[in-house]
Amino acid sequence: MCQSEARRGPELRAAAKWLQFPQLALRRRLGQLSCMSRPALKLRSWPLTVLYYLLPFGALRPLSRVGWRPVSRVTLYKSVPTRLLSRAWGRLNQVELPHWLRRPVYSLYIWTFGVNMKEAAVEDLHHYRNLSEFFRRKLKPQARPVCSLHSVISPSDGKILNFGQVKNCEVEQVKGVTYSLESFLGPRTSTEDLPFPPATSCRSFKSQLVTREGNELYHCVIYLAPGDYHCFHSPTDWTVSHRRHFPGSLMSVNPGMARWIKELFCHNERVVLTGDWKHGFFSLTAVGATNVGSIRIYFDRDLHTNSPRYSKGSYNDFSFVTHTNKEGVPMRKGEHLGEFNLGSTIVLIFEAPKDFNFELKAGQKIRFGEALGSL
């Protein structure tokens, strides 16, 4: 028996050395990665990170023993070229579908997202030449009556994610997850062409928005799902005096993602329209999302979203107040304002008297024209 064990000794040592070889090779490879520049390291470690989250739990745990750590899911998601993918999706949406293919493609979309085509101005699916036309379909005039009893109505179909007073210059994108009001609207760097002067602190920034004594600042966040009506309208009678465009990312803005990524709305591309209504400051922000690189404002022909010529982190200002137009662009409640492709988010931030009340519940479904709140 001792002789047999002695004969098996070299075999066992050879097997152990063979089993150690992958670990040694991995250590050597990680040593090479540690000498690389940060961009190269990020590129080389990305496939391992993807496998780490896709494979069954613990499958790549041995990698941690040799010093490797996966990047976070948020970091991994942010590294996806969403702007490029959204531009490609936009090009695909413009491709005209053969007449025989339109009904099955649109029917699949209707079934998947629960679209109500009985409300569409044109119910015939063959009428829509491409996906873009189908996404931006118009409604029958009687499908969305505008409430005349309340001062603020819903600008779009969607789901109410959050609403209420703005406190400590923080706005909730979903319950418990906030973002900075100044980061969202942008820094007040110049008094020229802006509806309010620059602020030096959180308190003064908010005070510059609240222009009348006794008023408070309010917000409302509406999420548009892919199956919702994609146009948005003026939520009240107001005058638009300024537009600020933030190129940003184009990450998904569904409620689950909004809980996952802090300040998601501040990262994403958005178009901020600011102006005044009868109670003071009023703003409507259209937030882009994955495959929603195209945000269109009907009266703003100079606006071009998801364009390669803009760099992330920058913003572009445009004033509607000119020498010939001293006030801006007047909008009536319910008037067509703009449109998205696929689905996205509308954020309203406005000042109103302290007795302003929202007629809402968090999580409820709402349609364009229905009441948001009133005095």
From TrEMBL:
InterPro entries attached to this UniProt entry: PS_Dcarbxylase, PSD-B, PSD_type1_euk
Cofactor or coenzyme needed: pyruvate
Annotated GO MF terms: phosphatidylserine decarboxylase activity
Pathway the protein contributes to: Phospholipid metabolism; phosphatidylethanolamine biosynthesis; Lipid metabolism
Post-translational modification as stated in the protein's UniProt record: Is synthesized initially as an inactive proenzyme. Formation of the active enzyme involves a self-maturation process in which the active site pyruvoyl group is generated from an internal serine residue via an autocatalytic post-translational modification. Two non-identical subunits are generated from the proenzyme in this reaction, and the pyruvate is formed at the N-terminus of the alpha chain, which is derived from the carboxyl end of the proenzyme.
One BP annotation, GO: phosphatidylethanolamine biosynthetic process
GO CC annotation, single: lipid droplet
EC code(s) of this entry: 4.1.1.65
Site note Cleavage (non-hydrolytic), residues: G343, S344
Cofactor binding description: Binds 1 pyruvoyl group covalently per subunit.
Protein name listed in UniProt: Phosphatidylserine decarboxylase proenzyme, mitochondrial
Keywords: Decarboxylase, Lipid biosynthesis, Lipid droplet, Lipid metabolism, Lyase, Membrane, Mitochondrion, Mitochondrion inner membrane, Phospholipid biosynthesis, Phospholipid metabolism, Pyruvate, Transmembrane, Transmembrane helix, Zymogen
